[in-house]
């Protein structure tokens, strides 16, 4: 049976067991048809709607 030769740290074990993924920000389309990042001001109209 395979047995590890050295002990793994708690941090290393937690990194292996995690299911968190990096979420990339998705651009949204405004009413005027331009794309912008969420929670940012529209550069063409100056409007801010989250």
Major sheet strand order: 1-2
For the termini, the CA-CA separation is: 55 Å
Major sheet characteristics:
2 strands, antiparallel
Rg result: 22 Å
Instruction: Name the assembly state.
Output: single chain
Helix content: 10-25%
From the spread of the alpha carbons, the general shape counts as: rod-shaped
Structural class assignment: alpha+beta
Average pLDDT value?
A: 86
- Number of helical elements: 1
How much of the sequence is in beta strands?
5-15%
SSE succession? HEE
Unreliable stretches:
none
Structure summary, number of beta strands: 2
Overview of the molecule:
- With 50 residues, the protein is α+β, with helices and mostly antiparallel strands.
- The protein has one helix and two strands; from the N terminus they run αββ.
- The protein has a two-stranded antiparallel sheet.
- β1 and β2 form a beta hairpin.
Q: In summary, what is this structure?
A:
Residues 1-20 have a biased composition (Basic residues). The protein has 50 residues and is α+β, with helices and mostly antiparallel strands. The chain has one helix at residues 10-17, and strands at 28-29, 35-36.
Q: Topology, please?
A:
Elements: H1 10-17, E1 28-29, E2 35-36
Antiparallel strand pairs: 1-2
Region (Disordered): 1-50
GO molecular function, one term: structural constituent of ribosome
GO cellular component, one term: large ribosomal subunit
């Amino acid at each position: 049976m395979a047995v590890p030769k050295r002990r793994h740290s708690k941090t290393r074990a937690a990194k292996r067991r995690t299911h968190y993924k990096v979420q990339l920000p998705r651009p949204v389309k405004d009413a005027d048809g331009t794309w912008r990042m969420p929670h940012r001001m529209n550069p063409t109209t100056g409007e801010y709607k989250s």
